[in-house]
Design brief:
The structure is a homodimer.
Chain A lengths: L2 E8 L1 H5 L1 H12 L4 E6 L2 H10 L6 E2 L2 E2 L3 H24 L5 E4 L7 E5 L11 E6 L1 H9 L3 E4 L2 E3 L5 E3 L2 H12 L3 E9 L17 E2 L1 H9 L7 H13 L4 E6 L9 E3 L2
Chain lengths: ~260, ~260
């Protein structure tokens, strides 16, 4: 039987504020078995870029990453946020290892082709090398992954943390029984956006299609769930969308085949 | 017989400018056998701190690291400089892994006690854990180490890159035949500071004592050489002080027992 691995993606807000980070790391520490933390850091990147006089340009919530912005996200995601988490986990007795996709050549991407929008130095993932990652995890090392990859030609690339979490979860599903948890600012997928308590406990693909046709699931939640079902098709056992503070209990929305 | 390991420390200037970094990475790539790169990044840290409106305070060439400065060095050393090197080495087919002392708990430090000077969040190294590092190196992984450690209580600490290189070289000398190379802005230890060609090819401890008494070796070179002899006493096979651009030939000053 494959051993269990939990891949947890946490957004920027939670990891960028000292108190909520501390709380998250306590919760993350209590998750049993092998685990990986994938983090964001967008708010800090925006703040530091602003302080450095670099304009923050976003299209549909995605950052346009020019050469100067790439330096900022490499500093903030790969340095500031990543190492705060690593040091915090080490202080909790967890043998964390901070990684970008460039380290150990774990995630190689291609610079997103320019279409209507030129996203700049943004990576679309081509390949996850799970061999070394699997060995490290089996030694009880806990990878902490920043939303950065590389192109194999010497350039770092800014890469969506949700996508990194999904691709890493898929790549490791041949070696582990993988649960992928997206920590979210809501308690889960809501039946009514205005009612924080209206969490849908479980969504299968037929449910998803019905909810979409009924207009209950819409907007940015649609691609999130599409990605979740793709990950299930690619071998991930279970996907959970929940609050970061609910990591250690049985809440949120479970996405199942 | 132990296999050969070369630990190379390069200062900030070389790794912070695109052209000289590219040159260095070419030279580093051609160094045969197992290897580790330890880098600085002080000039970038000074520049970014200035842009962020943080005052750069130095005492005897050492940075006073208050909480805001710690964030800057964590970003710059652990993110910007480290990941530029890692991506650059990956593009040259070298399986680089960027590390701070917090990652894998490799280097634990203690915050420097306040005496006449309060250096702030500066680490004095207590312990290097070479077990995992040895395993990684034997898998042909090339560690790229930023001048940052942690205190085991959740804090990163700014740590001198020369010291990191020496302590890592010492800790690995039981598993490897270690050569430690300090890349320097001069061709080696000079007999005459005004004459760049006056390199002393080899210095033993009796030579060192004689040169000191004659006033030929003085100033900042004295602690550098003291550290070198300490490293030899602790098991490092050879120490070389040379130009970064001379990595791949037989120049510089060799420090021998």
């Amino acid at each position: 039987m494959k051993s269990k691995l939990t891949v947890i993606k946490v957004g920027g807000k939670i990891v960028e504020e000292k108190h909520s980070l501390s709380h998250l790391l306590d919760d993350f520490s209590s998750v049993e078995g092998h685990k990986i933390l994938v983090h964001g850091g967008g708010r800090s990147a925006t703040r530091i870029a602003t302080q450095l006089g670099i304009e923050n340009r976003m299209v549909d919530g995605r950052r346009i990453t020019d050469a100067e912005t790439l330096k900022v996200v490499t500093m903030v995601y790969g340095g500031l946020v990543n190492k705060s988490i690593v040091a915090g986990l080490q202080s909790r007795g967890i043998n964390a290892l901070g990684l970008t996709g460039a380290d150990l050549n774990i995630i190689r991407s291609v610079k997103r082709p320019v279409t209507d929008v030129d996203y700049g130095f943004v990576g679309d993932i081509e390949q996850v090398d799970s061999v070394l990652l699997t060995e490290l995890i089996k030694k009880s090392i806990v990878p902490v992954m920043a939303p950065l990859t590389h192109d194999g030609k010497g350039n770092m690339l800014n890469t969506n943390a949700d996508t990194i979490a999904a691709e890493v979860a898929k790549a490791l599903s041949s070696a582990f029984d993988v649960t992928l948890i997206y920590c979210f600012e809501k308690k889960g997928v809501l039946r009514d956006e205005e009612d924080d308590e209206s969490v849908i406990p479980c969504i299968t693909r037929p449910d998803f299609e019905r909810y979409m046709s009924e207009g209950i699931i819409r907007g940015g939640m649609i691609p999130k769930l599409e990605n979740a079902f793709n990950a299930l098709d690619a071998g991930v056992s279970e996907i959970i969308i929940t609050l970061a503070s609910a990591l250690d209990n049985n809440q949120g929305t479970r996405i199942k085949k």
